[in-house]
Amino acid sequence: HLLPGYIDISDSHGRNIVSKEWNSTIPSGKGLGLTELLGPDSSKFVKAMFIVGDNSNSINDELDDPMKALDSLEFLVVQDMFMTPLAQKANVVLPRIAFSEKFGTYTNIERRIQVLRPVINPNNTQARSEGWAISEIAREMGANGFDFKSPDEVMQEMSRLMPIYG
User: Fold this and answer.
1) Model pTM?
2) What is the reported pLDDT for 61?
């Protein structure tokens, strides 16, 4: 129900700004929430999922058994640093680098931007950041706008779309 920068999906002005930046039409209707994605009827809506470094058993007390919902998927990709129970369910597991190996930023729950600078070299030369993986998958699926060359370019787009980053 929210676009980048906490813009409500029903806000036509906000959708127009995002549409121009992404050169695509933004739907005005609310998408699926967590309970629809991982609830008992999820197989009606979701056929495949890409999950980055999260154990779905601990994400929401309102869900009976999110791991069971994942069993109904036709295809599951998990990107993580370890072979967690979730990764063991995946059709494809992509190696993920640790925060101490990344360059970029993240925003904490207080909306403070934290800078990440690598302090160690990645041990696994095949491991990549989740941003890289998402961009590669999007490009392979024919999506436009995922040709970022650096985390700086991602931050520039975020600054254009979200006043809190400007």
Assistant:
1) 0.81
2) 58
Structure tokens at 42: 């999820």
Tokens of 54: 């999260």
Q: How far are the Cα atoms of 35, 79, 107, 136, 153 from residue 128, in angstroms, in the given order?
A: 29, 9, 20, 11, 17
The interaxial angle of helices 12-22 and 151-161, nearest 10 deg, is: 150
| Amino acid (one-letter) located at 29 | G
| Token couple for 161 | 């779309």
Query: Alpha-carbon distance 89 to 39, whole Å?
Result: 17
Task: Give the pLDDT confidence of 24-50 residue by residue, as tens digits.
Answer: 899 999 988 887 888 777 888 889 999
Residue 103 has which token pair?
A: 């360059």
Distances in whole angstroms, Cα of residue 103 to Cα of each of 53, 99, 122, 154: 17, 8, 12, 12
HEC string for the chain? CEEHHHEECCCHHHHHHHHHHHCCCCCCCCCCCHHHHHCCCHHHCCCEEEEECCCHHHCCCCCCCHHHHHHCCCEEEEEECCCCHHHHHCCEEEEECCHHHCCEEEECCCCCEEEECCCCCCCCCCCECHHHHHHHHHHHCCCCCCCCCCHHHHHHHHHHHCHHHC
Angle at the Cα of 104 (from 17 to 162), degrees rounded to 5?
20
The C-alpha atoms of residue 156 and residue 166 are separated, in whole angstroms, by 9
